[in-house]
């Protein structure tokens, strides 16, 4: 069903309201048969998008409310979260920063609602990767991350006015010989990097960007 403007060829054009065969509805602007301009699209599953369209795709600024209660407000390119935006997750966590291909990518800040901690730094394809700061209630960690885990040189900075320098070292996997027969060649779970302290100092200006 459609009610609204049409162009000379009878295509939807200008402002209109439509109910799609799958039960979704759209109210907003059209250009020559395609959703273009500003509009609001309601999905049958309870999701809703309100914002800009270009040739049937979410493009420009827009807000998407997901069925699980999460929400994204920011830039879109060809139906993907891309550019700058803020995402409120269903568990109350938030991410504010850069996006590419629907994923957290570039510089951004992720706040964990449960602990109040926040990660401020680089992301690659949705994963914490690169120089960053992990800020907790009374101390913070400054260093580099690889695949979501801290690795290499870094420091913990404590609010009482001192720092603990050191590095995160990736432990080596030790193969257990007894289990050899029953082992189905499952790749071992990667071990978490281990923090190794080198010195305690008063506050210093060192930052993970210094090494680049």
From TrEMBL:
<comment type="function">
    <text>Functions as part of axonemal radial spoke complexes that play an important part in the motility of sperm and cilia.</text>
</comment>
<dbReference type="GO" id="GO:0031514">
    <property type="term" value="C:motile cilium"/>
</dbReference>
<dbReference type="GO" id="GO:0007286">
    <property type="term" value="P:spermatid development"/>
</dbReference>
<protein>
    <recommendedName>
        <fullName>Radial spoke head 1 homolog</fullName>
    </recommendedName>
</protein>
<dbReference type="GO" id="GO:0005634">
    <property type="term" value="C:nucleus"/>
</dbReference>
<keyword id="KW-0969">Cilium</keyword>
<dbReference type="Pfam" id="PF02493">
    <property type="entry name" value="MORN"/>
</dbReference>
<keyword id="KW-0677">Repeat</keyword>
<dbReference type="GO" id="GO:0051321">
    <property type="term" value="P:meiotic cell cycle"/>
</dbReference>
<dbReference type="GO" id="GO:0035082">
    <property type="term" value="P:axoneme assembly"/>
</dbReference>
<keyword id="KW-0206">Cytoskeleton</keyword>
<feature type="compositionally biased region" description="Basic and acidic residues">
    <location>
        <begin position="1"/>
        <end position="12"/>
    </location>
</feature>
<keyword id="KW-0966">Cell projection</keyword>
<dbReference type="InterPro" id="IPR003409">
    <property type="entry name" value="MORN"/>
</dbReference>
<keyword id="KW-0963">Cytoplasm</keyword>
<keyword id="KW-0282">Flagellum</keyword>
<feature type="region of interest" description="Disordered">
    <location>
        <begin position="1"/>
        <end position="23"/>
    </location>
</feature>
<keyword id="KW-0469">Meiosis</keyword>
């Amino acid at each position: 069903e459609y009610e609204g403007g049409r162009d000379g060829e009878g295509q939807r054009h200008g402002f209109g309201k439509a109910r799609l065969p799958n039960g979704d509805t759209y109210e907003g602007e059209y250009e020559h048969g395609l959703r273009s301009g500003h509009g609001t699209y309601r999905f049958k599953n309870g999701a809703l998008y309100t914002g800009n369209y270009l040739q049937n795709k979410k493009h420009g600024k827009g807000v998407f409310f997901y069925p699980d209660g999460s929400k994204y407000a920011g830039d879109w390119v060809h139906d993907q979260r891309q550019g700058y935006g803020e995402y409120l997750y269903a568990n109350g966590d938030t991410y504010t920063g850069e996006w590419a291909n629907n994923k957290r990518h570039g510089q951004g800040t992720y706040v964990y609602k449960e602990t109040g901690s926040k990660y401020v730094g680089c992301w690659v394809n949705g994963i914490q990767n690169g120089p960053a700061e992990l800020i907790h209630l009374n101390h913070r960690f400054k260093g580099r991350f690889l695949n979501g885990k801290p690795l290499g040189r870094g420091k913990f900075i404590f609010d009482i006015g001192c720092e603990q320098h050191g590095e995160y070292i990736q432990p080596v996997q030790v193969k257990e010989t007894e289990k050899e027969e029953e082992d189905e060649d499952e790749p071992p779970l990667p071990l978490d990097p281990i923090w190794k302290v080198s010195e305690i100092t008063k506050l210093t200006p060192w930052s993970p960007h210094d090494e680049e």
